[in-house]
Design brief:
It is built from 15 helices and ten strands. Helix 8 links the parallel strand 5 and strand 6. About 6% of the residues have low confidence. By secondary structure, it is α/β, with parallel strands linked by helices. It is globular and about 60 Å long. It has a single domain, classed as Bacterial extracellular solute-binding protein, family 7 (D-Maltodextrin-Binding Protein, domain 2, 3-Layer(aba) Sandwich). Strands 1, 2, 3, 4, 5, 6, 7, 8, 9 and 10 form a ten-stranded mixed beta sheet that branches.
Length: 349
């Protein structure tokens, strides 16, 4: 009887271990399996290591894989774009340092992080300047607006090559925000960017500067009650399961700015330089169109799931613009006041 009991116990333990192993295997399932290359990159003569912190289901991130595949085909396997999303190479500030050193060759940097590379890059994150999809296209396709932006980080050895996006910014909150007064009861999480801190102070809002990986727990526990982010990101990353309200401020376009180590690029053969730049430019332009569609689709899905979308009145939107006049002055000097005013005038602000 004792032997039978031991045998039953051993079988139970084996079963438990087997089930645990299955769950462990499931947990370790590769989240990027669908994006694995359909070619063997081991024979490439050159490798371009490209980083990003987000998930490629966001069109602005998925562009990295489309660039990878196009460059591989066009270069006939000579140049491999080794795209590493989901912060595989570290957080954005860490990767920026690696980019300057050449340990990483490129990154699709969020627009909020990019201002840590060069102040001029902050122009796209200034509230109500490059704030619509159409204005973004105008900004990108007008040489006198784009070129100073593209050249602004060269003194750090970094080229600004192109931009993709993740939609217009607003407020995802746990309670409805229909007025500025409503917003002042919210503790917003904002990105680790000095410009953002300055305009939230000017607006008189409560905020907490917090790395993105810390957001889920902070939102669940009530440490923060709102997010300064886009509808695309909030819906895809399930933030709307807790913060079920979204105020469409549309004060800026969330961008991934394609930064590249110039020293690495200069060592690349001329024909591969052309192939890489053409792929980045054309895929980035196509991705900006996809982002418009993704924004509409994700807003529709969120509404179907019960998320409430609202807008501030025109008068309250103007109040926000009026309150950040000192920020325009301070950051206009950092960005370059003549350039900043040129961008404002060209975009009708």
């Amino acid at each position: 009887m004792k032997r039978l009991s031991l045998l039953v116990l051993a079988l139970c333990l084996t079963l438990v271990i087997g089930i645990s192993a299955c769950f462990a295997a499931e947990e370790k399932k590769d989240p990027l399996a669908a994006w694995k290359p359909k070619f063997d990159s081991s024979g490439a003569e050159y490798t371009y290591i490209l980083s990003n912190i987000s998930h490629p289901v966001i069109e602005g991130v998925g562009a990295g894989y489309r660039i990878r595949d196009r460059v591989w085909e066009a270069s006939k396997g000579r140049l491999y774009v080794d795209f590493r999303p989901l912060a595989q190479l570290g957080g954005e500030k860490d990767v920026i340092n690696k980019l300057k050193l050449g340990a990483v060759h490129g990154m699709l940097s969020s627009s909020v992080a990019a201002q840590n590379v060069a102040d001029t890059l902050g122009v796209v994150n200034m509230p109500y300047v490059v704030d619509t999809f159409d204005k973004l296209d105008t900004f990108r396709n007008t040489p006198e607006l784009w070129q100073p932006f593209a050249d602004s980080a060269l003194k750090s050895g970094i080229m600004t090559v192109d931009v993709t996006g993740y939609g217009p910014y607003g407020w995802a909150t746990t309670t409805p925000v229909e007025t500025i007064e409503d917003a002042k009861s919210i503790n917003f999480r904002i990105a680790q960017a000095p410009l953002n801190a300055d305009f939230y102070k000017a607006w008189g809002m409560k905020f907490t500067v917090m790395p993105w990986p810390d957001v889920p727990q902070a939102l669940q526990t009530g440490v923060i009650t709102g997010l300064d982010h886009t509808a695309i990101v909030c819906n895809i990353t399930k933030k709307f399961t807790i913060a079920k309200n979204f105020t469409e401020l549309d004060y800026a376009q969330g961008l991934f700015i394609h930064l590249m180590n110039k020293r690495w690029f200069d060592k690349l053969p001329a024909d591969l330089q052309e192939i890489l730049m053409t792929a980045i430019k054309e895929e980035s332009a196509a991705t900006r169109k996809l982002t418009r569609k993704q924004h509409d689709a994700q807003v529709a899905k969120a509404k179907e799931a019960g998320v409430t979308f609202t807008k501030l009145s025109d008068a309250e939107k103007q109040q926000l613009i009026d309150e950040i006049a000192p920020v325009y002055e301070k950051w206009g000097e950092k960005i370059g006041m003549d350039y900043f005013k040129k961008v404002q005038a060209a975009l009708g602000n």
